[in-house]
Amino acid sequence: MTRTLNNCPAPAKLNLFLHVTGRRPDGYHLLQTVFQLVDFNDLLHFELRDDDQIRRSTEIPGVPEESDLIVRAARLLQGALRQKNSALAGTPLGANIAIEKNLPMGGGLGGGSSDAATTLMALNHLWQGGLSRQELMDLGLQLGADVPFFLFGRNAFAEGIGESLQKLDTPGLWFVIIQPGVTIPTEIIFSSSELTRSTKPVKMTDFSIGTKKLFGKNDLEAVAVSKFPEVAEAIKWLGNYGEARMTGSGACVFCAFTEEHDADKVLKLVPSQWKAWKAKAMQEHPLAGLLES
Ligand SMILES: C[C@](O)(CO)[C@H](O)COP(=O)(O)OP(=O)(O)OC[C@H]1O[C@@H](n2ccc(N)nc2=O)[C@H](O)[C@@H]1O
Ligand SMILES: Nc1ncnc2c1ncn2[C@@H]1O[C@H](COP(=O)(O)OP(=O)(O)OP(=O)(O)O)[C@@H](O)[C@H]1O
To answer: Where are the active-site residues found (predicted)?
Structure first.
């Protein structure tokens, strides 16, 4: 029996566009977005324990163990398996989990959500839980609106609050991503009275590979720009080299390039007060093979 699963990537996502089309009675917003996986990631390491404890062996500054999405994902899966899979009665379902955190927090790159999805995939495998992709996606949605996408494992057109997903092929682009030096809590943007909540819904057939529409507007950007001048400044700077926009609820902004050397050139020019990275579009989650289709 496998006891460890090391070097499990938790990749970032970019929202190539993001429209807010309405609001549910519970306050959550209805969205339409294209999720793009990129090869910029956190790295998680898992080791089985001979008891039922979930232990985090690395600290994430500012994130106490109880609210860490990695620990919460592991506990959620443990509870679901105890309820569903009687074959596991008497088997310890514990793990030590270590993380190398590379993705900026509150960056709109979905880092915490991706960590949670990687945890669900890795522990379902190590604990031999046997949950299907759909079952893990249903569990993941309890942790956050972005989690199901990472479990879906492919680039996608998303609707609902982000959980209704259709596979979408996207171009093999290179991205320059800038962190403008602020952290933006998602709920500040969604709760703003300035937010436009009535963008007309589009159909998935309205856009296809390579069309401009794949890179439409992000409705959350105007709110973020008005509250955080740092975001406006980064969009303005990156906009000198292509179409720059914000991902998710910010703060990171990105620009797409067809050629890697163009991304390299721009990356070298990024002012030193900002952190910046180059990332390549991925078509599939690197752990997709752990789950059946
Ligand atoms: C902005 C996106 O990153 C786009 O991909 C996501 O919609 C946010 O996903 P997330 O970080 O997983 O969000 P959650 O942890 O579920 O929600 C954080 C907060 O954002 C608001 N929220 C989030 C998603 C959504 N569709 N509508 C919302 O209004 C809610 O106030 C919620 O309390
Ligand atoms: N493992 C984790 N990694 C990062 N953040 C975590 C984690 N667990 C809990 N959090 C909390 O979640 C918040 C959002 O973190 P995350 O990195 O997912 O933001 P984000 O990139 O803006 O996400 P999104 O695009 O989904 O809005 C953090 O500020 C932190 O308080």
So the answer is: 13, 146
Q: Would you call 146 a catalytic residue per the annotation?
A: yes
pLDDT tens readout for residues 268-286:
999 999 999 999 999 999 9
13 classed as catalytic: yes
- In the listed set 149, 167, 185, which residue is the last one of a domain according to the structure? 167
The structural domain count of the chain equals: 2
Reported as a single tens digit per residue, the pLDDT across 119-146 is 999 999 999 999 999 999 999 999 999 9
ipTM: 0.95
Q: Which of 44, 18, 40, 42 is nearest to 31 (CA)?
A: 18
Which residues 6+ apart lie within 8 Å of 209 measured at CB?
169, 170, 171
Q: How high is the mean pLDDT of the chain?
A: 94
Q: Rounded to two decimals, what is the model's pTM? A: 0.96
113 labelled ligand-binding: yes
CA distance 24 to 36: 25
Q: Whose CA is nearest to atom 16 of ligand 1?
A: 144
Return the residue whose CA atom lies nearest to atom 28 of ligand 1.
Answer: 28
Known binding residue 111? Answer is yes
Which one of the listed residues 68, 146, 219, 278 is annotated catalytic?
A: 146
- Listed residues 167, 184, 214: the one ending a domain: 167
